[in-house]
Amino acid sequence: MGQVERRGGELPPGQRLQRGWPVTHYGPVPRFKSDRWEFRVFGATADGDKTCWNHEEFSSLPYDTVVADFHCVTKFSMLGMEWGGVSAGTVVKLAPPADDVTHVMVWAEYGFSSNLRIEDFLDDTSIFATHKGGEPLTAEHGFPVRLVVPRLYAWKGPKWVRGVEYMTADRRGFWEERGYHNVGDAWAEQRYTYQEAPGDGPEL
Q: Residue ranges of the alpha helices (H) in the chain?
């Protein structure tokens, strides 16, 4: 059963409606090799061990759908997109974090990373998407797996995800070390580091 993340079809501050889906990312599109692909959950896990799924195993995990809006920090938004895949809640249920975990680092190809507060990661609409609109993602849009966290700007949900690290303290990810807001709440228009309030993130 899908969840809906909407505020009456409104756009967050500073956003404009986008009809198509632009391709935006840093660096080249990775080549997918199914025999080498692995999704890992590691770090401060409840049992101190890591959990790994190969592509076939990950594709067999419970499938969920989410209908949610998509907000890019470059100021375009798309409304009512349907995502299919494995919910963040399912990953956490199968590979639980330790009780003192406060943040996660989501790791993607080429060492790209994005940090999130555990409450944002565990939002009902957060999903490791493998499909959009019922169709598999294209390579340019993150195939085989991208994280979608509708309540945050889209950069907080990396394409080409390879794993999740549970953390007991915050640590900035790739863009968060390069001038982008550590939290990235689209409705609070948290775009850049200079907008951070005390407590929003660790010092640079």
A: 55-59, 88-94, 118-121
